[in-house]
């Protein structure tokens, strides 16, 4: 169990080119990371487009090389052992080191190559992130991007797992493993179509809002967490007219006049400026403090392309002064 030679061979095998082509991460580690992420060999095999038996063989090979069990088999999947958690941290660091290696090589070419992996909430994509990427790409056309849309919790977990470089979250919880490179204050406001009856009122309460058809994002969204907490605090039983995992759908239904909603202003700035939507502040302290949070992994040396895009993001979005 674990001779020096065996462990050296294992560490070397972690950085051998795998089935993915230009990934320097071995199949052993790729398969392990996917099983760890999914908690299921069957789901991991579907994502990797290989047979479950192939994934099982790779996991058994890893366990044989290390001399420890990496997962506990359970009726509904697998769960990492203590050794599995250690390997997960190691595998994340291997991936980040590989990304850094590519970045430093690319830096020799003066940002003519590189790749930036982004995670973002849906609300920031069309009115914020697409503009950031387009402007950056016009200056550095050789830099590629990957973008995944998810909720704030998924963004934090993805950054910590080394699956992305920069996260664009909404009202993220403080986390010692994350650095907030930029936080932009953007309160949650009532959002309606022009001419809605609520706009004629001098003051607004949550009870006023509950009297109209109300649209909510699903419970995985940070916005929903804040809205639910305020209705609970005021002992108001809200029956939403619509729940959705799409902020775009919610905006469209508010524009149509079917719904009202509570949203931050930045994702709907275009509609507000065009007069398609109207927002009103609400007298709710927790709503006044919400922020858009651009986050990276704490203490990670960023590859040059990632660092350049982060600087571009700060310069573009940071409020004056």
TrEMBL record:
Residues 24-81 form the HTH lysR-type domain. Signal peptide: none annotated. PROSITE patterns: HTH_LYSR. One of its GO terms (cellular component) is cytosol. The keyword Transcription regulation applies. Keywords: DNA-binding, Transcription, Transcription regulation. Transmembrane segments: none annotated. GO terms for molecular function: DNA binding; DNA-binding transcription factor activity. InterPro entries: HTH-type_LysR_regulators, LysR_HTH_N, LysR_subst-bd, WH-like_DNA-bd_sf, WH_DNA-bd_sf. Gene3D superfamilies: 3.40.190.290, Winged helix-like DNA-binding domain superfamily/Winged helix DNA-binding domain. Pfam families: HTH_1 (PF00126), LysR_substrate (PF03466). Belongs to the LysR transcriptional regulatory family. This is LysR family transcriptional regulator. It comes from Arsenicitalea aurantiaca. The lineage of its organism: Bacteria, Pseudomonadati, Pseudomonadota, Alphaproteobacteria, Hyphomicrobiales.
